[in-house]
Amino acid sequence: MAENNIEIRAVRTQRGARLIQDDVVLSEVLAQPGPTHDIFDLIAATIAMLSRGDKVAMLGFAGGGAIAPLRAMGFAHPIDAVDLSTTGVKLFRELSAPWSSEVRFHHDEASRWLKRRRSGFDMIIDDLSVPGSDGVTKPAVSYELLPALVADRLTPNGIVLTNLLPVPGMSWRRLMDAVVGPHRCAQLILLDDYENRLLLAGRTLAPAPENSRLLRRALAAIGSELSSGFSLRSYERARKPARGSARRRNRA
Fold first, then answer.
1. Which of 68, 90, 136, 141 has the highest local Cβ count within 10 Å?
2. Positive or negative CA dihedral for 27, 74, 115, 236?
3. Residue 143 resides in a domain
4. Other CB atoms within 10 A of residue 70 CB
C-alpha cells in the first residue's frame, strides 16, 4: 500500500478527530484515554486482557485508534506500530502524545518490517486495509504472506488478532481459513453492528467463554458500548474431503 495512493482526511470532533478514507472511518483519534465505542475498543481489550506478555506489534496504525482505550484499560507497555502512511501518526502525536506512553512508529510495509524482526512478539495485531472498488478491504498480504510470517514471529504463547474485512471474490470461509492457516487453534469474534470479523489465533488459546468474559469485563470497565455488542466462539477451519470420497459418492 503506497502512501501516495492513500487519500485520508481528518475530521475534528469534540473528543479528538476521525480519520476517514472513502467515507469509511479508519480511526478515532482521542485527545484523552477512554472508549471510542467502536471496534478499536475490542482490539484494545484483546491486547490488555489476552496478551501473555508485553511485546505488542500493530500492523496498520492509521491514527492509533486502539491506543486511547488500551491506555484507559491500564496497558502501559510500549507498542510497535507499522504503517506506510504517516498522516494518522501526525494527528496521533498532536492529540495523544501527552498520555499515550511509548508508541514506536515504523514507517514501513508490514511484511517487510516483520521479516527483519529477530525477537518474538506476545501479540501481533493485523489491522491492515486498502481501498477497493467496493470500499475498504484487506490487502492480499494479510491472507497470503502474513499468516505464516506472523506465526514465525510470535512467542510460543503468542496470539495474533486479525481485523478482517470482505474481500471481493473470496468467501468469508476461504478468507478466514487462509488467515488461520499455520495456527493450531482460533476463535472468531462477530460484532453486532460491524461487518468486520476478528480472528484470534495461536498455538494455544484459553476457552472461548473465558476469553469472552475477560473482554467484556475490560470493555465494561471503561464504559465501552461494545461490552455487549459482540459474540466470541471457537473457530474450526473447513475440512477437506477425504481422498477418493467424491468417487465413492458417485457409485450406484
1. 68
2. negative
3. yes
4. 30
Domain contains 251: no
Number of domains in the chain: 1
Cα 106 versus chain centre, distance: 17
Query: Residue 212 sits in a domain of what CATH number?
Result: 3.40.50.150
Question: Are residues 237 and 178 in contact, defined by beta-carbon separation less than 8 angstroms?
Answer: no
User: Is the Cβ–Cβ distance between 125 and 58 less than 8 Å?
Assistant: yes
C-alpha cell at 82: 507499522
Q: Is 28:136 a contact under the CB 8 Å cutoff?
A: no
User: In this predicted model, what pLDDT tens digit does every residue of 209-227 receive, in sequence order?
Assistant: 999 999 999 999 999 999 9
Output DSSP code: residue 202.
E
Q: Is the pLDDT of residue 96 over 50?
A: yes
**Residues listed for the chain:** 252
pLDDT tens-place string over residues 30-67? 999 999 999 999 999 999 999 999 999 999 998 899 99
Residue for grid cell 512467542: 155
248 lies in a domain?
Answer: no
- Alpha helices (runs of H) in 118-227, residue ranges in sequence order: 141-144, 146-153, 172-180, 208-221
In a domain, 246, yes or no: no
